[in-house]
């Protein structure tokens, strides 16, 4: 029998277990490839985007295989989240962390072989006593979650992860499954090497998150713009803002403007309040958190319907990760970035503070981000190409695909603007430059004799309205940089543009319309005004409060939608709904059937 035959057989069994335990009809994406390896005792590194269903690739083996699966995970909040979901599906799971009071019981049941799944933090896993504990019973699998933490190339290096190898090596027969959502080629090679996983164990799923709709707009009135996004998306949302002060300010104004529960989250908040806001968010079906990027690392909330950036993220990698927190449940979600020229200016100014060798790298990151922001092409295509994929030209689910923006060649106008910057001494702001170029009779202009310059009044009214978006575009690409006193100076490829060696195009946003808003509304999957769906949601909320778990741990929205549409009449029919496994059928089936009968 070949390895492949073995894997196929194992997958047949796994499919039955998938139906029985999770209530899902089939595997998604690369799950079967990962499981085919793991279930036949071979190690693997699974690089799968957020929401692809990584946890299932070790939870299912944990339930199926004899022995305990030990999962190493870097964040306690994340472990507890996973624990709740695993238990809700009837998997015998426990966590061993500094936050758990029941560690004695956990160790006892582990020793007695009564656990399918044990979660531990890396600092504990690397201790010698832990190795002894593991030797006391049979192990089925090591799962190393957030495996990029093992690599210095990754974005979140954790030295404790480096200490895992001796532990893994002392159980040579136990396969290892490393999991991560983001790892470039260098990081992947590093993870394989560090954790002793053979190179053929790499399973790479695409980066695409098709259910997320990307939109990038200029920021003219963030409160109004984000309030608009909130109006279109009644579900939970995250708004990222660059500073603590802006977080506080936006949270207050959005709460005011929308009347919704909007809360701040940043590292400067009182720890109690921060924790309370985070748990309220996880449990909520409609709350919005305004946060610095400190938020999101430890949460695994599947039903986040929108992520809005009130300013530019640090890089495309950061953007992908932050927007990736939307729509993990696979339902439609939207990611909107609002940007201003000043964002790029500030980011470029910060570059100067970095050591020389880092500057180059960071400048490239910023340029890549500016390209994404400025492009008239498909956003998703730009994003996926950045990650080395070869996506189709158009995705049909981003702002530029849904409404093609106009592109105009403004090379001549750019040369006029840049030369006005040069001739006025590279110390005036946009307002003054515009007055000079359009020939405005202004006191300040006469005083400085700028009305005698060759660039005075060389831009007509038609072109004048393009000056602002042009200035923005030139700042985004770094051809114009701000001076310390609020002026603009030449930089980057400004000389090449002035010499006519480089062309400049700008993207003209589509005329203001409510279309994007309407589309977002159409994008939401939940029915509006369906009394049965609402009643099922109410029941879910009651059960969630009783059991002190977030509503999605009981059932995802998609499960309630299926119930409302199919109206199952019996336990049997209920069990056929995707997402209703044996344990949940047993625990909740009757209660939901009753609601269906009564509505
Ligand atoms: P990741 O860890 O990769 O971000 P999760 O493991 O949290 O993703 O899974 C995301 C969601 O997809 C979960 O709610 C999970 O129950 C669901 N899911 C996983 N596998 C399947 C599947 N084969 N069919 C349907 N839903 C699935
Ligand atoms: Zn697109």
Give me the secondary-structure topology.
Elements: H1 3-22, H2 31-38, E1 44-47, H3 56-64, E2 68-72, H4 76-88, E3 93-96, H5 103-111, E4 117-120, H6 122-125, H7 128-135, E5 139-144, H8 159-162, H9 164-169, E6 176-180, H10 185-195, E7 202-204, E8 212-218, H11 222-232, E9 237-240, H12 244-258, E10 262-265, H13 271-283, E11 288-291, E12 306-309, H14 316-323, E13 333-339, H15 341-351, H16 356-374, H17 379-386, H18 399-402, E14 406-409, H19 411-423, H20 430-438, H21 443-447, H22 461-476, E15 480-482, E16 488-490, H23 494-498, E17 505-508, H24 515-523, H25 531-547, H26 551-554, H27 557-566, H28 571-575, H29 582-598
Parallel strand pairs: 1-6, 1-7, 2-4, 2-5, 3-4, 5-6, 8-13, 9-11, 9-12, 10-11, 12-13
Antiparallel strand pairs: 14-17, 15-16
Helix pairs in contact: 1-2, 1-3, 2-3, 11-12, 15-16, 15-22, 16-17, 19-20, 20-22, 25-27, 25-29
Bound molecules: adenosine-5'-diphosphate (ADP) and zinc ion.
């Amino acid at each position: 029998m070949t390895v492949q035959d073995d894997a196929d057989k194992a997958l047949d069994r796994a499919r039955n277990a998938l139906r029985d335990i999770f209530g899902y009809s089939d595997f998604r994406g690369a799950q079967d490839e990962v499981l085919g390896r793991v279930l036949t005792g071979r190690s693997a590194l699974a690089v799968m985007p957020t929401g692809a269903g990584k946890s299932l690739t070790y939870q299912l083996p944990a339930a199926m295989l004899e022995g305990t699966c030990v999962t190493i995970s870097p964040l306690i909040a994340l472990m507890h989240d996973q624990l709740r979901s695993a238990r809700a599906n009837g998997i015998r799971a426990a966590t061993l962390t500094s936050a758990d009071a029941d560690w004695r019981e956990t160790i006892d049941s582990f020793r007695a072989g009564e656990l399918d799944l044990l979660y531990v933090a890396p600092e504990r896993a690397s201790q010698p006593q832990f190795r002894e504990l593991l030797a006391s019973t049979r192990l089925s699998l090591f799962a190393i979650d957030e495996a990029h933490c093992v690599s210095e190339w990754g974005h979140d290096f954790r030295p404790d992860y480096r200490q895992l190898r001796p532990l893994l090596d002392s159980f040579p027969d136990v396969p290892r499954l490393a999991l991560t959502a983001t790892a470039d080629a260098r990081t992947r090679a590093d993870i394989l090497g560090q954790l002793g996983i053979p190179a053929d164990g790499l399973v790479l799923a695409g980066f695409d998150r098709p259910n997320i709709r990307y939109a990038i707009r200029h920021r003219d009135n963030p409160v109004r713009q984000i309030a608009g996004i909130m109006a279109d998306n009644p579900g939970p949302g995250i708004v990222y803002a660059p500073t603590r002060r802006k977080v506080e300010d936006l949270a207050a104004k959005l709460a005011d403007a929308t009347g919704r529960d909007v809360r701040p989250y940043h590292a400067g908040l009182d720890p109690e309040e921060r924790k309370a806001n985070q748990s309220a968010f996880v449990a909520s079906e409609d709350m919005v958190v305004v946060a610095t990027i400190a938020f999101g690392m430890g949460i695994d909330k599947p039903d986040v319907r929108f992520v809005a950036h009130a300013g530019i993220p640090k890089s495309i990698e950061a953007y992908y990760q932050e927007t990736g927190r939307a729509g993990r449940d696979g339902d439609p979600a939207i990611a909107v970035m609002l940007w201003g020229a000043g964002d790029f200016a500030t980011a470029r100014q910060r570059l100067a503070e970095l050591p020389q060798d880092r500057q180059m790298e960071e400048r490239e990151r910023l340029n890549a981000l500016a390209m994404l922001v400025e492009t008239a092409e498909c956003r998703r295509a730009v994003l996926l190409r950045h990650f080395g994929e070869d996506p189709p030209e158009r995705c049909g689910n981003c702002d530029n695909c849904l409404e093609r923006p106009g592109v105009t060649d403004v090379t001549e106008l750019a040369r006029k603007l840049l030369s006005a910057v040069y001739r006025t001494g590279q110390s005036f702001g946009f307002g003054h430059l515009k007055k000079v170029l359009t020939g405005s009779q202004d006191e300040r202009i006469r005083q400085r004799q700028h009305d005698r310059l060759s660039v005075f009044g060389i831009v007509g009214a038609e072109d004048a309205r393009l000056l602002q978006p042009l200035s923005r575009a030139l700042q985004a690409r770094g051809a114009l940089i701000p001076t310390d006193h609020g002026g603009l100076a030449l930089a980057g490829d400004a000389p090449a543009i002035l010499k006519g060696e480089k062309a400049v195009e700008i993207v003209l946003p589509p005329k203001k319309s409510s279309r994007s808003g309407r589309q977002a509304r159409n994008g939401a999957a939940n029915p509006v005004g369906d009394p049965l769906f609402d009643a099922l949601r109410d029941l879910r909320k009651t059960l969630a409060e009783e059991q002190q778990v977030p509503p999605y741990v009981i059932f995802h929205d998609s499960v309630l939608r299926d119930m409302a549409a199919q109206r199952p009449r019996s336990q049997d029919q209920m069990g056929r709904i995707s997402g209703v496994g044996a344990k949940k059928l047993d625990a909740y089936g009757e209660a939901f059937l009753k609601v269906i009968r009564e509505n």
